[in-house]
Each structure stands twice: as structure tokens, then as C-alpha cells.
Amino acid sequence: MYKLSVKKHNKRMKLYKMGMNDNEIGEKVFRNALTIFKWRKTNNLKAVPKKAWNKGTKSLYQAWNKGLTKETDIRIKKYAKALTNRKFSKHVRKKISKSLLGKYTGKNNWNYKGGRKYGNTLKWDKIRKIILKRDKHKCRNCGSRKNLHVHHMIPDRIRSHPEYMCLPTSFVFDKPVWFVTLCISCHSSVGKMMDKMIYSIRKENRKKLRGKN
Questions:
Q1: Predicted pLDDT of residue 1
Q2: How many CA atoms lie within 13 A of 14 on its CB side?
Q3: Is residue 70 a part of any domain in this protein?
Q4: How many domains does the chain have?
Q5: Does 201 map to a domain?
Q6: pLDDT attached to residue 182
Q7: What is the DSSP string of 149-190?
Q8: Does 116 map to a domain?
Q9: What is the mean pLDDT of each run of 10 residues along the chain (213 residues)?
Q10: Is the dihedral of CA 156, 161, 164, 170 positive or negative?
Q11: Distance of CA 42 to CAs 22, 29, 67, 91, Å?
Q12: Which of 25, 99, 114, 196 makes the best surface tag, with the fewest CB within 10 Å?
């Protein structure tokens, strides 16, 4: 293993005591910040925070209200009055909350992505508890007890497939039989397998359709 000479070590220590960070020391000794970081860790030295590039420099644009008070300026007096006297009664507050109710929720929200059948619903929470209890809070694949997920064997993207559409209307997808407990790593691998399967089924169907035409 490469050992650092005493001379180089002392030089780095001198720069560190001067208050230089990893990047600054690296520039001086012609090494990258990572090597300096490793050297600092081996010597149990604390990190020096980076200095702000604009520390001590004056801004080009001065704030319009700098040094002004309520007594000296009319504009500030107006703004202060408007803010301090802005107190709504309970009746007005109720009106405001009613007017905003449902305005930014569900489909009206800018983050809305089509909604989810499972997730934060009470029904899903009940199913999840039942499945975890049944599987004794263990992954059915590897036996892990950490980061457990409840996996649906027939997810939404497969349920819309014609093969499953042929099933009778009385068929229930939400029965505990169709759920299984998996850990996060097993769940991701199963998800990838599912995606491959769906892709292959769709590819075959496209070929069949092309053959008919």
C-alpha cells in the first residue's frame, strides 16, 4: 500500500490548520478532493466547511426599504397597517375554507396521475394487515422480515388484458389468495418478470392481428 511521506503529510496538515477545505488543499498539493478526504479520515480530522463565494462582498442592488421605518416612510406605514389589521373572524375563515374545499384535491390537483385503486384506502390497509398476519410478517421468497411489501399476483396492468377479461363477472381479484408478502428486492424482481411477460403477450397478440389483416 502507498504510504505518504512525512514532508507531504506535514504540508497537508499546515494547509488544513490554515482553515482550507478538501478542494483547496487538493489544488495546492495537486491532488483531487477525494484523496484529501481519505487522508483526512485516516488522521481523524474534521471537515472544514466550504466558504461562500460571495462572503464579504457587497451586493450591486440595494433593497428599496433599507433603513426605512414606519415613522419615516408612508409606504412602509401602509404595508404594516395592512398586515397587522388583517384578522378574519371565524365566520369569514369558514367561508374561505368552504370555498377552497376540493379545489386542489383529486383531479383538480396539478400532481394528479389518474388515481390509484390501492394505496391510502381503508380497504387496502385491511387487506395488507390480513396478508402480513397470514404470512407471519416474512417474505415468502427469501424469508426476510425487513421492508415488506404486499404483492398482488394479478396487478391492474394485467387485469385489463383480454385473457382475464374472459373470466366471469363474479370473479373477485381482491381475495387474499391473490396476495403474497414479499421483501423490496424480491418484489422488484417479480415486477420485472411481470413486465417481460406482459410485453411478450402483447407482442404475440400484435403478430396475430397482423396475420389476420
A1: 43
A2: 8
A3: no
A4: 2
A5: yes
A6: 92
A7: EEEESS-HHHHTSHHHHTS-TT--S-SGGGEEEEEHHHHHHH
A8: no
A9: 77 89 87 88 85 73 80 81 74 86 79 61 81 91 89 73 59 79 90 81 76 61
A10: positive
A11: 14, 18, 51, 65
A12: 114
